[in-house]
Amino acid sequence: MSVVGFDFGNESGIVAVARQRGIDVVLNDESKRETPAIVCFGDKQRFIGTDGAATTMMNPKNSISQIKRLIGRQFNDPELQRDIKALPFSVTEGPDGYPLINVRYLGESRAFTPTQVLGMVFSDLKVIAEKNLNTAVVDCCIGIPVYFTDLQRRAVLDAATIAGMKV
After folding, report:
1. DSSP strand E in 39-131: where?
2. Is the N or C terminus of the chain more exposed, i.e. has fewer CB atoms within 10 Å?
3. Sign of the CA dihedral 94, 83, 14, 44?
4. What is the pTM of this model?
5. How far apart are alpha carbons 93 and 78 in whole angstroms?
6. What is the pLDDT of residues 97-126, one digit of tens each?
7. In what helix (H) or strand (E) does residue 6 lie, and over which residues does it extend?
């Protein structure tokens, strides 16, 4: 049995597996160790990871990255407000006071929470791990920054649950 670990950042995510001989950083389908942490919503489907990065230039307003900056924060957080100004996609305040990411998906306007988008990224990283291990990944370890608040940590746990994993 192997232990699977995920490290996600603003730009990319990494999958590592602890085995008998040590820690292996898993390669994705493009033989790279880092997988872009991007979800790109299109008219007919969504693209995650490397596929999302490839379609970003054609669809920048529906390409979601920098999720780590949004996760688990209140919309009125001054740091979040500063970060939103630099993002190419639309972020608005949801009814609960948290940010909502607005995209055009399947021909209609949709809103996703940062937790839902991070769950999509985790599901892509999970697929990479499962291909490497040839078995289902259920339990995992996720590396997060030490400066994350309890609310941000819980949002990461919720995103892992969305991806079907237990942390």
Report:
1. 39-41, 46-48, 63-64, 90-93, 99-105, 108-112
2. N
3. positive
4. 0.93
5. 13
6. 999 999 999 889 999 999 999 999 999 999
7. strand 3-8
Q: What pLDDT does 1 receive?
A: 58
Query: How does pLDDT run across 44-77, given as a tens digit for each residue?
Result: 899 999 998 988 888 889 999 999 999 999 999 9
Give which of 30, 56, 26 is closest to 41, Cα–Cα.
56
Rounded distance between C-alpha atoms, residue 123 and residue 57, angstroms:
23
Q: Which residues 6+ apart lie within 8 Å of 68 measured at CB?
A: 8, 9, 10, 37, 145
Q: Which residues pair with 59 in a beta bridge?
A: none
Q: Which residue from 37, 40, 46, 44 is spatially nearest to 58, judged by alpha carbons?
A: 40
Question: How far is CA 51 from each of CA 3, 9, 94, rounded to the nearest angstrom?
Answer: 26, 17, 29
pLDDT at 144: 92
CA distance 64 to 102: 10
